[in-house]
Amino acid sequence: MAATPGTLRCPSCGAPVAPETRSCPYCQTALALVSCPSCFAAIFQGAKHCSSCGAGVSRAAAEPRPARPCPECRRDLAPVKVGSVLLDECLACGGVFVDPPSFERICAEREQQAVVLLASFPAPVRPARAERYWPCPVCGRLMNRQNFARLSGVIVDVCKGHGVWFNHGELQAIVEFVRAGGLDRAREREKTDLEEERRRLHQEQYAHALRGGASPVPPPPGDPLDYGAILSAARDLLKGMFHH
After folding, report:
1. C-alpha dihedral over 178, 194, 192, 145, to 10 degrees?
2. What integer is the mean pLDDT of 51-75?
3. Theoretical Cys-Cys bridge with 36: which of 50, 164, 183, 241, CB 3.0 to 4.6 Å?
4. DSSP of 82-142
């Protein structure tokens, strides 16, 4: 008999399994629920398609590499290939570590963004710990915490040399921010801030000259700004995260 749409199936043997089941009664495969990023229905980790909406889940285990401990749990991270990028995920807390080239590619390519949104990441099996500075999984140095692009509202942990650590769900939140034009808004804000700083410096120089008895000529109200210099000073937001 055909399965009812929405029926959860074991990703290993395909048998129908109840959502609360922790191991398949037929093949004994360990089961863990994650959310379909397309329709948010429950699916089992490792499923190739969502049983509710049919969306494909493009992810596969990657070749083993030197151990990288989770910044929070200290368990070894599991390398996984999502689309064309390689990530390291924690099966306990659901966090994800992304190296700089992979993260820049995710932010730049809409096709890769769609893959990330459709990929199922492990749901955390324990509550998140209190916020603190976490060590980089590669070098062990404490990472810097920052609001991505200054206005995303997503606080990420950055090691300039090795990558970004995302708590569970934060990578998808960043992708949604980028797809909604967040990086363009961040660049506009950077340009506006630089314009304000330039005007402030003009005012300080004018006031200093007056105090010294000189007769400076203030810049006209419509003084054009050198936008090329402003954009050059702003630099690319993503590269600024990783390069000193």
Report:
1. 40
2. 80
3. 50
4. ETTEEEEE-TTT--EEE-HHHHHHHHH-HHHHHHHHHSPPPPPSSPPPPP---B-TTT-PB
Structure tokens of 1? 């008999």
Q: Which two tokens stand for residue 79?
A: 């390398």
Return the C-alpha torsion angle 45, 46, 50, 51, nearest 10. -90
Burial of 177 (C-beta count, 10 Å sphere; 0-12/13-18/19+)? buried
| Residue 81 CB-density burial (10 A; 0-12 exposed, 13-18 middle, 19+ buried) | middle
pTM summary value: 0.59
- What element of type H or E holds 44? strand 42-44
The yes-or-no verdict on residue 99 having pLDDT over 60 is yes
30-59 per-position pLDDT tens digit? 887 765 655 556 678 777 777 777 766 666
Q: Which residue has the tokens 């395909």?
A: 14
